[in-house]
Each structure stands twice: as C-alpha cells, then as structure tokens.
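hiii so um. not sure if this is the right channel but i have a protein structure encoded as tokens and i wanna go backwards to a sequence. like what aa goes where. can anyone help
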C-alpha cells in the first residue's frame, strides 16, 4: 500500500523511538524519509536527490546499489541463512572471512572474533583484555584508558569507553575501571603550538594517567586512529607512534577502534597502519559490509590469541549472531569489490589527495577555519572570526543551521557543534568529489548569508572591509 510522506511521518512519530533524537523536535518537524539510494546519492520520499557526504553513518564504503552484495546475501540465504558458531561449529563464510581479514590486517594478527556491531565489539574487547590479563595471573589489570570526545558505541560498555559527556550524563556512566584522558585536538586545545610538539604532549597524558592509576592496574588503551563522531579529529603525526611507545613501555595492550577507519577509509586497509601504531586488538564494523547488513568484530593479535587459546580455557562470551553466515558472505563480496576496484589505493593516491586539495581551498571562505582531511574523511570549523580564532556562541547552533542548508541544497554533511564533517563513499570518483564540493560551497555561502543577516559576523565584516581597502 503506497503511503504519502505525511502518513509515514505520522506512523513514525507515533511508534518509532529513534536513536540519538530529540523526539519533541522530531514530532514537530516530521522525519525525513529516505526511500532509495544508488551510487553516492540517496533520494527522499518526495523524490529529492541528496549527495550522501557521510556514506550513511560512515559505512557505505563501496556506495549504494551494488548488485554483487545483494546476490551474495541471496545465495547465502538460500544455502544456509543461519547457523551459530557456539559448541564447536562453524560455517563456510565465517571461516573464509576470518582468514581474509587476518590477511588484510597484517603479520601481527592471527584471529577474528565476530559480533554484529561496533558497540558489541568494544564490549568484547573489554571482556577479552580482562580475561587475557587474568589468564596471565594479573587479574588486577582491569582499567581501560580511553579519551574524551571518543566514540566507541552506545552499549553500557561502549558508551563508557567513549568520552561523550552527553552520553555519560544519562544512565550512570561510565561503568567502573574506565578512565579518560584529553583528546589530541590541536586546533581547539593548542592552535598556537607547534602541531608535532602538541602531538607528543597529548600522548604524554597517557603516561601521566598510567602512573596515576598504577601501571600494574592498567589493562589497555583504546583510541580511534582518527576520531569520527567526535568531529573528524585528525591527530598530529607524532601522536600514535608515541602512544605505541608508552603502551610498550608499560606492557599494556593497545586497542585500535577501526570501526570507521578500517576497510580503506584513510587510504590504508586499517587506520593504525597509516598512523604508525601496532595494535593488539582492532575493532571493526561499518565498512566491513559497507553497511548492507550488520557485522562487526575484533581482529586479535598473535600475542592475545596465544594466551586466550593456550591459557584462557573457555572464553564465556559470544553472540547469537557471531559469525552470521549471510553477514560474512556479504563482507566477502564487499572486500572483493574493494580489491577489484582498487579503492584503498585510489583513496591514497587519487581521490584522497583530490579531496584534500578542495578542502585546503576552502580556507578562502570567510566562515571556514581549520579545514583538513585524511583519506576520505574531512572536517572544518565554522568561525565567527577566524583571524582571531573566535568561535560562535554555542547556543547559536551555527553548525545545525549549516546542516539544514546542506539538506536543503542536496547534501548530507554532519554537524558536531560548529565542526562540519564529511566521509563520502570510497567509490567516489573525482567528478563525484567535485560535485560534492560544489554543494559544500553553496551550503557554506547560504550559511554565511544567514549568519550575516542575523548580525553574527560583526568582527569578520570589519576585517573584510579593511582587506577591501588595502
Ligand atoms: C560507529 C562506531 C562504533 C559503534 O558501532 P555500532 O555498530 O553503532 O555499535 C564504535 N566505534 C566507532 C569508532 C564508531 O564510529
């Protein structure tokens, strides 16, 4: 039965509690109904075409409309739609995919544990590292160190690992034995300082925290190579090697949350490779299936796997859908596409640099400060007076205003405060990126016109006037 947009919105707000949504605001406005997708575009129920500058939620790495993924799912559903991996059983795609992922992850790794999401995978990480230390006779090593403004998911454990104050404010989080250090956000925390020196300083906060907690109590450090939901925070290049050195010094495990950075997003198969770290565990989800079906997991290093297998006994942990055959079959087909089309290499050598050049050019825009990219993620800051590093008042929600202009002009760009961020599909061509950036410019101009009309750009106008006179 065909529905009008209005009818769907009515059903939706009457019965559907959305994730991360203010429901009073949603009910007043009505949800945007996305009806179909192809390539780098989605269409809403009114037929409006929108460039998906966020790959859904950072996951549709190979773009929409890939028949190969549909066929892989359909074939697997006909053969074996489900069976579990408990009690010494397995299935063909789960075993094949584990081999494939370990091969991509590199020499350090030997095994994969499966879940259905990034959140569950990070819960697995915490249970696994604590079990690892207990198996080595050090059960007091329980503390996980994470970072403010990190995102590691929305389960009790995922949200505790994350450093989102809004999430911690609800439901009594974080859970015990998870502590946080400041993030390596150069532009916000120390813009005047040398970037590389700041990277070393930010890493030194980990050592400070290890010493404060007591090194014998610390189990692991977790971080995203590039912080995603926190606003595409790209660390200085000195940061991760120093984090690695500190983890090694105290023997603590390093967990790289690769849910966004994994499967090519930064122009390497995993982000830690680019950042110069050698993690003991890597969380994956999102891009592993390009979001066509839920799948997540943890890539486990030889160091950890050897202990789990030889000393750990039974690991009392698992999910009904661990190693789901259909999800694993889709992941295999997805990796086939990434390899066949050379998407990782393309991001590194062609589309990533192209996007970076466009972003660098945005610095001529009166609103834009700190525009930077890494592979196929990018972020910029909307500022009232960038020459004086003057932000807008948070309460003005200029980022939200910009996001609305984006939707109105056929572009999904996400707002994190006044940081505007993008993460387009890795399948983007240079022409796709040109089209996206044309829309980015239109949206920034519309936002600028809007904030000027509201009289929020006072300082910038005088700078412009004097520049015009010179
Ligand atoms: C999205 C995300 C998660 C959570 O994944 P879900 O599948 O939503 O549970 C965890 N870590 C990072 C870095 C993410 O971006």
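sure thing!! here u go:
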């Amino acid at each position: 039965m065909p529905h009008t947009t209005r009818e769907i919105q009515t059903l939706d707000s009457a019965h559907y509690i959305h994730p991360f949504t203010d429901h009073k605001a949603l009910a007043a406005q009505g949800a945007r109904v996305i009806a179909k997708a192809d390539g780098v575009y989605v269409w809403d129920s009114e037929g409006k075409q929108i460039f998906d500058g966020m790959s859904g939620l950072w996951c549709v790495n190979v773009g929409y409309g890939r028949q190969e993924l549909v066929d892989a799912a359909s074939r697997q559903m006909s053969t074996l739609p489900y069976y579990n991996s408990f009690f010494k059983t397995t299935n063909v795609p789960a075993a094949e995919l584990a081999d494939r992922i370990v091969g991509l992850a590199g020499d350090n790794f030997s095994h994969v544990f499966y879940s259905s999401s990034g959140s569950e995978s990070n819960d697995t990480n915490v249970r696994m590292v604590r079990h690892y230390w207990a198996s080595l006779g050090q059960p007091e090593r329980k503390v996980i160190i994470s970072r403010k403004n990190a995102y590691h998911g929305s389960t009790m454990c995922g949200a505790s690992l994350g450093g989102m104050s809004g999430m911690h404010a609800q439901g009594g989080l974080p859970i015990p034995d998870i502590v946080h250090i400041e993030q390596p956000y150069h532009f916000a925390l120390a813009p005047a300082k040398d970037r590389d020196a700041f990277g070393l300083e930010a890493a030194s906060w980990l050592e400070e925290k290890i010493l404060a907690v007591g090194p014998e109590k610390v189990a692991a450090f977790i971080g995203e190579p590039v912080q995603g939901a926190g606003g595409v925070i790209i660390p200085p290049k000195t940061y991760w090697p120093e984090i690695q050195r500190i983890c090694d010094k105290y023997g603590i495990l390093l967990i790289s949350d690769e849910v966004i950075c994994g499967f090519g997003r930064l122009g390497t198969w995993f982000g830690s490779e680019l950042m110069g770290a050698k993690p003991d565990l890597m969380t994956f989800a999102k891009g592993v299936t390009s979001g066509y079906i839920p799948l997540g997991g943890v890539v486990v290093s030889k160091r950890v796997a050897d202990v789990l297998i030889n000393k750990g006994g039974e690991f009392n942990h698992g999910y009904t859908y661990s190693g789901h055959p259909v999800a694993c079959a889709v992941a295999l087909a997805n990796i086939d596409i990434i390899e066949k089309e050379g998407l990782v290499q393309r991001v590194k050598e062609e589309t990533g640099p192209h996007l970076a050049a466009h972003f660098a050019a945005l610095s001529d825009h009166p609103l834009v400060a700190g525009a930077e990219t890494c592979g196929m993620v990018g972020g910029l800051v909307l500022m009232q007076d960038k020459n004086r590093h003057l932000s807008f008042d948070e309460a003005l929600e200029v980022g939200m205003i910009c996001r609305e202009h984006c939707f109105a002009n056929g572009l999904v760009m996400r707002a994190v405060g006044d940081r505007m961020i993008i993460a387009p599909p890795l399948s983007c061509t240079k022409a796709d990126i040109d089209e996206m950036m044309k829309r980015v410019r239109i949206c920034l101009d519309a936002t600028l016109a809007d904030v000027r009309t509201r009289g929020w750009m006072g300082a910038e106008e005088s700078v412009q006037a004097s520049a015009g006179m010179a």
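oh and The mean pLDDT is 96.
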